Amino acid sequence: MPGTVVRMNMSWWLALAAVVLLAAVATFVDGWGRGGRKPSARRRPARRPSQRPTRRPPGRADGDRRSPRPQPGEIWWANVPFEDGPGAKDRPCLVLSVRGRKAVVAKITTKYHDGRGGVIALPAGSVGDARGRASFLETDEVRGVPVREFRRRVGEVDAGVWAQVRHLAR
Fold it and tell me: Domain for residue 56, yes or no?
């Protein structure tokens, strides 16, 4: 009809503006919480044992100085040094002893080496991995790891396994 004014409902504009504003705030807060750094597709080069990491791996908050210390008989994820050269790998390990700022550990792996001695099977899921895979404690190579390199406690080792390996740290 001529002269009739049709009014449109414009309330959805307000809802759209609110959603856009929330998305912008979430993006800003997420970027601020990550230190403003963009994730890099490149892998970081292996660091020498004498270098301290600039950021802690997931599992321990930056600057958290009151994290529990590893204790003998506990399974932890830690940055364990390689046996045959520089560098280290984030892996589960069994704490055998703690003296001062160093702990003596036996590494835990998911790969079973058939002809190798000193390997003890652990129950599936012992190391707290997402897939619950079987794990193996390698007792033939113990290593010293700085306490600052421990990031996440998984639990305690089975009492029977501990009875077999507790003598290794002496």
Answer: no
